[in-house]
Design brief:
The chain is an alpha+beta fold and about 170 residues long. It has six helices and nine strands; from the N terminus they run H-E-H-H-E-E-E-H-E-H-E-E-E-E-H. Bound molecules: coenzyme A.
């Protein structure tokens, strides 16, 4: 199956409150610990979710992505993609990519200027992410990445990109 066909057969839809249990399981299994799942829960409880999507295999949710606000500068509307999770038995089958492409498309539709994430550049380059030009709270270098949805919007922007406080309350 080609990469394009594989992606087209990985349906993604917005998460609903009824998905909470499945999302907790997916995130816990993907990271082999509960911290990231508690982070998702905190962000949901605080009403700070911008985008929450699940990827489906049949009727079963097997992947999840969350997007929450990032504070950087009044000139740019930014958001952070984290965490991205796929059940281990379903990894390497295109679910993560389908979630990423859809999260980016939805963020673009919501008129966000730029997206950030912390992750392995080998994986995230394929979605257009490049090394971030601004600082982050984690001392990350190459792993902190940006995607301009409005080209050039981050030019001349400096400072530190800050995730919602839940990221500092849970050890991720
Ligand atoms: C990272 C993750 C979401 C990717 O989802 P996925 O459904 O397995 O990814 P896809 O099937 O869309 O893409 C597979 C490709 O990504 C690569 N890949 C997967 N995880 C990777 C990682 N952590 N680093 C680098 N490359 C990775 C695979 O080698 C494969 O490459 P190929 O297309 O060249 O063969 C999934 O592996 C996961 O849940 N991992 C544990 C949690 C995690 O680390 N999340 C990301 C940090 S927030």
């Amino acid at each position: 199956m080609s990469r394009e066909t594989r992606l087209a057969t990985r349906p993604v839809r917005p998460a609903t409150p009824a998905d909470a249990g499945a999302i907790h399981q997916i995130v816990t299994a993907a990271f082999a610990r509960e911290d990231e799942a508690r982070l998702v829960q905190l962000i949901v409880e605080r009403g700070q979710v911008l985008i929450s999507l699940v990827a489906l295999s049949g009727d079963e949710a097997v992947g999840h992505v969350l997007v929450s606000p990032i504070e950087l500068s009044e000139r740019v509307r930014c958001a952070g993609i984290a965490p991205l999770s796929v059940l281990p038995v379903h990894q390497g089958m295109g679910f993560g990519s389908a979630l990423m492409f859809e999260a980016i498309a939805v963020a673009r539709g919501l008129n966000f200027d730029a997206l950030f994430l912390l992750g392995n550049p080998d994986y995230y380059h394929r979605f257009g992410f490049t090394t971030a030009q601004v600082g982050n709270e984690y001392g990350a270098t190459d792993a902190f990445m940006q995607l301009e949805l409005r080209p050039g919007c981050l030019q001349g922007v400096s400072g530190t990109a800050r995730y919602v406080s839940a990221f500092n309350e849970v050890s991720v």
